[in-house]
Design a protein that fits this description.
Jelly Rolls; 42% helix; four-stranded antiparallel β-sheet; alpha+beta; 9 strands; 11 helices
């Protein structure tokens, strides 16, 4: 289910940057739709949230916002409402070496919504540094920091992949210690149906066909699927098809008619109508908007 959850945020643009500062500093990140993280590379800071006490962050610590909850970072304990908002814009010149350096990455969704599994997790998660248990995180951080240090060929391909892996490893490491907080479906009949939906969205699925895959009657399958997944089978199928279609629009140059067929729609027109109802824009407009560069999510406040 982690793969499906992270797949829901991949329809957004992947953005990342490093941050350096000395002296007194602080910023508040407003709530957004998507998932993001901060990783402390050098020095230390404090995580500030609305409901919990400030938490000190040391080199190697990761802060994960699975559903884009409001939070802040600061050089010292503070109240969230006292921190200035992070203003989007270019990096400011900073002294080198700086007191603190950290790396930010985000998938921000301008259309759609993150997977319910991500939204069900705590607003902000901290994963302490543990080189022995997760050396991959440090290697990924080094690769992403190097990629961000200057403009390199292939950044549009490498950067989303690195951010994707960072989110995966951070979430996986946290879930090792907090498995009970992740919504799990252990029913083999329903997981069999979900596997078919996820791997073969192009098939002409009906409730009857899915119930046969699950080995249940149509009525029993519908009731059990809705109770465990939180949505009726066909509602979930439509949502997954459109999420996958949005990813194909963002990640591939495939014609709209091809994308429509790959996600189970008989025509470009049918796919376009369903896509507009879910995301509020046409597939072509969505693809064009996703291709436009936007300011970085991790930015310093002005002043």
């Amino acid at each position: 289910m982690i793969s499906e959850a992270l797949g829901s945020v991949r329809i957004g643009q992947a953005r990342a940057r490093t941050f350096k500062e000395s002296g007194a500093w602080g910023m508040r990140y407003d709530a957004f739709e998507g998932s993001g993280f901060h990783l402390i590379l050098r020095g230390h800071g404090w995580l500030i949230t609305a409901d919990d006490r400030p938490r000190e962050l040391r080199p190697g610590d990761v802060v994960l916002s699975p559903g884009g909850a409001e939070h802040g970072l600061s050089h010292a304990p503070a109240r969230l409402e006292d921190l200035p908002p992070a203003i989007m814009g270019p990096n400011r010149p900073t002294p080198d070496p700086a007191d603190v350096e950290f790396l930010c990455g985000v998938y921000r969704l301008d259309h759609g919504q993150a997977h319910r599994g991500l939204r069900s997790l705590p607003d902000v998660i901290t994963v302490p540094s543990d080189r022995e248990r997760s050396p991959e995180l440090r290697m990924l951080a080094d690769l992403l920091a190097a990629d961000l240090s200057d403009a390199r060929p292939g950044a549009q391909t490498a950067r989303p992949a690195l951010i994707d892996l960072m989110l995966t490893y951070v979430l996986r490491q946290w879930l090792e210690q907090n498995r009970a907080d992740w919504p799990q479906i252990s029913d083999p009949a329903i997981t069999a149906a979900l596997r078919e939906i996820h791997t073969r969205p192009d098939q002409p699925w009906t409730v009857q066909r899915l119930s046969e895959t699950a080995g249940l009657s149509r009525t029993a399958f519908s009731k059990r699927f809705t109770r465990l997944v939180g949505q009726p089978p066909m509602t979930y199928l439509t949502g997954w098809r459109l999420t996958y279609g949005a990813r194909l629009l963002r990640e591939t140059p495939a014609p709209l008619a091809t994308v429509a067929r790959q996600v189970g729609y008989s025509s470009e027109f049918a796919f376009g109508g369903a896509f507009r109802r879910r995301y509020g824009v046409s597939p072509g407009r969505f693809r064009a908007l996703e291709a436009v560069p936007e300011p970085d999510w991790c930015s310093m406040p002005i002043g």
